[in-house]
Amino acid sequence: MPKDGTINRERILDAAQHLVIENGFAATSVDQVLRAAGTSKGAFFHHFDSKLDLARALTERYVTADIGQLHAALDATAQISDPAQRVVEFIRHFEDSADDIMSAQSNCLYVAVLAEQQLVSNGTADLIRHAIDVWRAAITELLSAAATSRALDLGDAEDLADHVFVTFEGAFLLCRSTGSPEHMRAQLRVLRRLLTAALSAGVPA
Amino acid sequence: MPKDGTINRERILDAAQHLVIENGFAATSVDQVLRAAGTSKGAFFHHFDSKLDLARALTERYVTADIGQLHAALDATAQISDPAQRVVEFIRHFEDSADDIMSAQSNCLYVAVLAEQQLVSNGTADLIRHAIDVWRAAITELLSAAATSRALDLGDAEDLADHVFVTFEGAFLLCRSTGSPEHMRAQLRVLRRLLTAALSAGVPA
Description:
The structure is a homodimer of 205-residue chains. Chain A has 205 residues and is mainly α.
């Protein structure tokens, strides 16, 4: 039977992602990944040049999924004609999926990457910056349309757009430190309510 | 000349804090801490039983400083008689100190601790949960007073209070991933403006 290299690579990445999110990157050894994935050192080094190369591949895959979730929320709300209502429903889309997100993982891979300078310096963190840029651009467009339609001043739309990333990451850390995954849904609800208030009143300087 | 043990302990903690925030805990060796602190292994193990004990001491000191900053902001705004205005000025207090915070550190120690399961499991993360509880209680009191004085529904005041922690931690990660420390001030400004809107309009369910 021919070996399916793609399946093996994905299995290694799945095992590594779980270990790195739980334990951190430096605290995860290649041997631990091999044991968890049920594969050999040879198979590992067939797919990855080094442990740092694995970190890069992990982050690339995670960023792709992250941007996929952004697009899913944009698509799910594309038919809403009122731009301000679309912003609110865009956030509600994530609020509704918060419990599913937190049942699949106890923290965000981005936290593990950003905790270690070796991954910041070697360009792995640049992949996260790319995700931030894509989210910022899409949400800035949503917010600008909403501000125009309601003749509101929302302040700097890019900073406000970044607050969605900030809420996700901060909520991951709140969940992790308290051991209570329901904080993710609660914090996305707080964000939705604050944005609803801002879209009704504007945001004073 | 007698050795001053307290000064030595603080010097080790200062060096370790910088290294752990930059590189992560697992990626920081005791030898690196000794070199950065200019001290000996004997001095280190006089003050700390183990590397994990160092992590606990680091986090204890950081939590004490964190709660100190909360109290400084409460004290600085204690004379403001309008409870809603006090909430806004309480956040502005941190906004005004954001650049100083970010010139002293590139990330939050909490991120390094929460990235590693060994520190979550051994009780180090419980120290962070204590800090979260203290911030939550103090800010919930501020928000509840503001909601009462303006007869507003602010939703769950504890979740809204947690959003301050969430904003700080998420903004640290935004700064770290983009290499732009000015995002801390920008995100605290976003939080202040969103809270100002909420205190003017309330937050619809």
